[in-house]
Inverse folding.
């Protein structure tokens, strides 16, 4: 089954923070992840609105309910690279291709802006996911994986 079969819609946030981010952030927090809550905090503070060249924030929705989010920002250690970040898929939608579809959309967007995308995988499951997406592991950096775009 693919995200299209489930009628999942992936859209950019635009210039407003989507209202569905609160319930998604709470679901992530209950799993021990606070990085989705940081989207709302940073947006409200004006410190990160995913608006610099190459940046993007996408939300995946099922029947109007936000079920996943993923963003792309400038890589802090290399201004010419981008970093995949604030990536989260609701537990009940994992393994259904939603994360892959979201990541593919962000990577395709990145191709117009950079030759390298980084990610900091925070768990073994995340490492497996990013490696299945073609990211290569490395050590000694602020990120754990890189993807060279050709």
């Amino acid at each position: 089954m693919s995200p299209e079969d489930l009628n999942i819609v992936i859209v950019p946030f635009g210039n407003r923070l989507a209202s569905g981010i609160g319930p998604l952030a709470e679901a992530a927090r209950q799993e021990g992840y606070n990085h989705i809550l940081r989207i709302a905090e940073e947006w409200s503070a004006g410190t990160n609105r995913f608006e610099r060249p190459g940046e993007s924030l996408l939300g995946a929705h099922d029947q109007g309910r936000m079920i996943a989010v993923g963003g792309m920002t400038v890589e802090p250690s290399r201004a010419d690279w981008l970093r995949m970040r604030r990536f989260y898929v609701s537990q009940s939608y994992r393994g259904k291709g939603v994360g892959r579809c979201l990541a593919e959309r962000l990577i395709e967007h990145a191709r117009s802006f950079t030759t390298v995308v980084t990610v900091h995988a925070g768990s073994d499951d995340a490492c497996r996911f990013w490696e299945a997406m073609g990211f290569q592991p490395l050590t000694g950096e602020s990120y754990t994986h890189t993807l060279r775009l050709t």
